[in-house]
Amino acid sequence: MKFTTLSSLLLLPATAYAQSSSASAAASGSASAAAPSASAAGNSSDYLTTVLGALTGAGLTSLVGAAQGIANTTEGQALLGSLANGNKTVFAPSNQALSNISQDILGNSALLTQILSYHILNNTYTAAGVANAPNHTIARSLLRGGNYTLPGNFSAPLVLTKNSTNATSFEIVQTAANISAGGNATAANLHVYVIDQVLSLPQSLTEALPAVAPQLFGLAGSIPGLADSLASANGITIFAPSDSAIGAIQSSLGQLNSTQVTAVLSNHIINGTVVYSTGLASGNYTSAGGEPFTFISNSTGAFVQSANSTAKIVQSDIILNNGVVHLIDNVLVNTASNPQAAESAYSSATAAAATSTEADTPVTATSQATGPSASASGSGGSSAGFKVAPIAFTNSMMGGIVAVVGAIVGGAFTLF
């Protein structure tokens, strides 16, 4: 499909809405003026007829069919009804992309609504407003609730990046492969990009970790209940050491007792708060072991520090349904712990989330934490603790930790 044809077709219904759009906001990647609501431009039925008609004319018949397939459900009506409220960016899968989706998914209206929700962003995003790689822009989608509930009722994000300052297209960062968003057009208050793949929904920790840190996942899976506890936490940030990083400290692990090993694991996690690369340098974060993190970025990359141990972030913003993973090149061997600080930090984080008024405010921050920039460390912010209910080390977990670490170091593990 030629984008010139797409543009001409989709621009037809936009004239009735042109007064409400902001050219400067589109250029910067976020909309400063709200597009008209359905009540301002006619009833919602007229609005949807206009938009779906434009998409049909552009050849996106499968997408229109999917939208019509959810139109008679409560969730689908809520999604479609929200389109007219404010400027939106839509990643529209082509007919070919949707043909690769199974009929079981297309016939599951609840799942299909979630998938379509994840293809729609609050605000208008263009290449000009997306961060240059390796930096990221975190963009909030319309997907929230159910298995995708984040602290403060924030919606699930998409990660955007582009290859150069002058790039006219950008990419959606997904675990399997990035998806290009090139040509674009407008339909009413919607900024539409046709993409050649359907976006994957955020995975759980137990689904995502094997692809990026298989040895760490194997360790977590060997400790009874640990992986499940992490996967069910309401908001979590994990600094996950790579396989080579874990292998490099096997001999050191043999010198630690079970309490110290527990502290090391805890000091790789922020519990109760989801911190994407865009926010690492802007807050004081305490680990689930009660120890402070320090974040530094310079011309060689971005780094996380716990006590005297430092690691480089080699892959940031691996999106989970309940948080985020940042892959690091070294194990943070910090054996200190402060349970009181951990519990206090987690309590502060959950209290802040419960009173958050930002759930419906689109996030258009641009990361400086994963690429060259001045050195920075955080101030202000939130954190988490293992001692509280969402994640707690049980006796069986502790026994598993002892056994697993002992196996790693070939039986050299000793208890002090």
From TrEMBL:
Domain annotation FAS1: ranges: 35-199, 192-332
PROSITE patterns named in the record: FAS1
Signal peptide positions (record): 1-18
InterPro entries: Adhesion/Biosynth-related (IPR050904), FAS1_dom_sf (IPR036378), FAS1_domain (IPR000782)
Keyword Transmembrane helix among record annotations: yes
Compositional bias segments (type: Low complexity): 357-377
SMART domains in UniProt: FAS1
Segments for region (Disordered): 357-383
UniProt KW Nucleus keyword: no
Keywords from the UniProt entry: Membrane, Signal, Transmembrane, Transmembrane helix
Record SUPFAM superfamilies: FAS1 domain
UniProt-recorded name of the protein: FAS1 domain-containing protein
Organism field: Kwoniella dejecticola CBS 10117
